[in-house]
Amino acid sequence: MCGATRTELRIHSLLVPREVWMNGPPQGAAGVPPASRTPLNITALDASAIELRTLSRVNLRQEHRRYRLCVQRMQGIARDLERAGLASCGATFGPEAPSAWALLATFGTTWRWAARKLTVPALDRAVAFRCRHLASGFCAPDEVGATIEALRCVVTHPKVDGLYRRASRDAPSNEIALAPEDCRQAVLARLDLLEGAADEGQGVVDVFL
Amino acid sequence: MKGGRLEFLVPDPHIVYNDAVRHSPWIRSGRLPQRDDWSTFRFAVKDVILGVATHRWNAPARRLDVRAWFVGEHPAFAEFEPTRALWAILASQAWQVGGRLAVRFEKGLPYDLRLLLEQRCGVEVSGHEEQLDEKTAHALYLACSELEVEAIERLRAEPEVSPEDVVFHTLRGTWTANQVRSMVGGRVPLRWVFAKHPDPWLETMSYLWLLRSLSLLLVEEYALARLVGRRLGVSAGRCIKRTGDLSRSLYESEERLDIEGTDLVESDSCVAVPVASPVELIPVLGIGPDDLEAELRAQVGRLPTDAEAILAVPMDWLHLSSARRTQLRVEVRAKGAWLLVIGATLNQLAREAELKLSVTAADADESDVEVDNVRRYAD
Question: Region B178-187: what's the mean pLDDT?
Fold first, then answer.
């Protein structure tokens, strides 16, 4: 076992049922520590409030620290819910396809790409805005539908190959080789996951393994 | 050599110490130093002065002018160590202010600096020269860092990362050379640390992963510091050296590593590694105490077989109940591994990583900067 393997990127997408997301684990549910009984909905709303506050461009460093704590808190709760059997693993993105690096690189690029390519009709603006949240690491049950719409708009766009090409060049290191096809597969895998979550009325939280 | 002690050697007798000391204009005039004033500083370790230099930033020429350079060798330090230190300080100053390694010596290149250059880079330069050419200055700056040639070559191969910038940040103390070695070993994308980190809003997952990876490096560094065991007022602790491939955190100590948690804060740490045994430091992080427990169990299940393993955990460990801590400690010892608790919590680690990132990854919050001041004092 070497250090490089220990810290390689692996993302686990956990599916949380709407009831648990909105109200927390049911009374008497065993195995959930008291600190993780907070409904995910509350932290997700906190994150949205922080994001709204940032529009004023004041105290950004503090705000993004708060946002980071919010998302980490959601990850902690989701992992505890998974251990207690109240959340399930929907997909795992690792070194092999669909690659975790491809997923991060593509979603990190999508918003900028969408802001440039999808700006004319009002519907496109909404899609571009939704793309802003693709890499946020969580998706509330109420937002899954809109996120699916946004992703469908992206994957069916005639110039989507440009997005995949750009994302493949956005690998953070020259030791991580990404191909446009990796990025396409990662986006499609994510779309599959979200469609499954929408059918079951679940929310999604991404955690690192 | 007199009486078994080395003589105090002044390599450049033509440099006048008094001139250096008296060249600070604010000593007599009672005004504060201004941007382009000559300023004299001394480089000392405890009560031993190893170097004195008078320098100023020459804005029109975008270089650092050095008027006086005085270096004293001392038997407590390796040969040319004070010269290396003084060059590193001046060159770093030039790099920080002007973004280039332009240092001009008014009285010609000092003799000891030329000897250092010859020793480290194999380049001979005349003492009549006043400034090293760009290529030689860069080579000397990199050679004066603690990073090995292999690490520097891998830094060169990274797009958007300047090895000089990385060396500057290690000399400045933002990241240690050991942490850079781990980054180079493939654990953290260097571009994110030394050029531009992911946007915390638009690339939250990438940003969180970066913070997590950097926190792991910090845990390792804190664990190493605890193993070295350097006490206040004592010059050196145990000598622990990194060995093997950069992708692993393998170390060897010239002394026995013995830590038994007996202080009032924590009594769970337990390390007893014989001399010269290879040791792998394995940092363990979780999102909270329960997650930490699960992570620790996962690590215990995949320990290295070719080295002693020390599992380093953050102080959040203490939030686990006493019974669970005892149970985990027993499990770790049953597998032949050791446990080490470091003195920082997960949140402290993340904040430290963020702070360091804000220094090295060009992360200026626009509300932090007074734009008017930037315009008024452009350099």
Answer: 87
The answer to the question of residue B326 being in a domain is: yes
pLDDT above 90 as % of chain A:
46
Tokens in use for A8?
Answer: 């390689």
Secondary structure of residue B188 in the 3-state scheme: coil
Pairwise CB contact (< 8 Å): A7 & B216: yes
Domain residue limits at B317 = 204-347
Angle formed by the axes of helices A141-155 and A160-169, nearest 10°: 100
| Predicted complex ipTM | 0.92
Tell me if B331 is assigned to some domain. yes
Residue B121 in any domain: the answer is: yes
| Residue B159 domain flag | no
Total number of domains constituting chain B: 2
Q: How far is CA B188 from the centre of its chain?
A: 17
Q: Give the bridge partners for B104, in sequence order.
A: B65, B131
CB contacts < 8 A (A, B): 123
Pick from A57, A65, A79: CB nearest B354: A65
Nearest to B249 among A3, A69, A207 (CB): A3
- B21 shares its domain with B137: yes
Do B209 and B339 belong together in one domain? yes
A203's CB contacts (< 8 A; 6+ apart) are: A15, A16, A18, A21, A40, A44, A138, A139, A140, A141, A144, A197
Instruction: Find the range with the poorest average confidence among A41-45, A127-131, B81-85, B122-126.
Output: A127-131
Contact A173 B190 (CB under 8 A): yes
pLDDT at A158: 87
Of B248, B287, B367, the CB nearest to A75: B287
Chain B, residues 255-294, CB within 8 A of chain A, namely 280, 282, 287-288, 290-291, 294
Q: Please give the Cα distance from B296 to B313 (Å, whole number).
A: 8
With CB atoms and an 8 Å threshold, state whether A36 touches B290: yes
Specify the 3-state DSSP secondary structure of B109.
coil
Same domain, B121 and B30: yes
Interval B260-289 mean pLDDT:
83
